[in-house]
Design goal:
Mean pLDDT: 87
Structural class: mainly alpha
Low-confidence stretches: none
Keywords: Membrane, Transmembrane, Transmembrane helix
Transmembrane segments: 26-45
Helix content: 55-70%
Region (Disordered): 70-89, 123-148
Strand content: under 5%
Number of helices: 4
Biased composition (Low complexity): 132-142
Radius of gyration: 41 Å
Length: 148
């Protein structure tokens, strides 16, 4: 079966061997020149190279606080930062409340029962919180989360 296949390599190999056995004046030179690119590629691929590990980066620390601050100054700056955070949080909550009012007005204008939807969402939220509390009590975790 292999000899009848059109993909049989034996006749091609035999023809090549017959050609190589014929006396040619430059056959050894041509053979050597044809091996030269392969030899160069193999030599280049197997050449040993040593990679030097990169030098560690130079780190420059930038301090934004005076290193000789007192505890009172630190506490005062922390209180000022907390006040700014609380003001930002209040502003964001006010913006969110305005958005909710706008969506409520839009829902009422399009004929959607907004109050029923809010009650349904609140019931789902309460059920999720109860499930989280149940899971936390089963695993022994506390519900306290550190705030920013």
């Amino acid at each position: 079966m292999f000899s009848r296949s059109r993909f049989n390599p034996v006749p091609g190999a035999m023809d090549f061997w017959t050609y190589l056995r014929q006396p040619q004046p430059y056959r050894w030179v041509i053979l050597a020149v044809s091996f030269l690119p392969l030899s160069l590629i193999l030599w280049w691929a197997t050449e040993e190279s040593i990679l030097v590990p990169p030098s560690p980066p130079e780190v420059t620390y930038i301090t934004s606080y005076a290193p000789d601050r007192s505890d009172e100054e630190i506490a005062a700056s922390n209180e000022a930062n907390q006040r700014r955070k609380d003001e930002r949080r209040a502003q964001l909550e006010e913006i969110e409340q305005r958005k909710r009012e706008m969506y409520r007005d839009l829902g009422r204008a399009t004929g959607i029962d907004v109050d029923a939807m809010e009650a349904e969402i609140e019931a789902e939220r309460a059920a999720e919180e109860a499930a989280e509390a149940q899971t936390a009590s089963e695993t022994g975790e506390t519900g306290a989360v550190a705030s920013d």
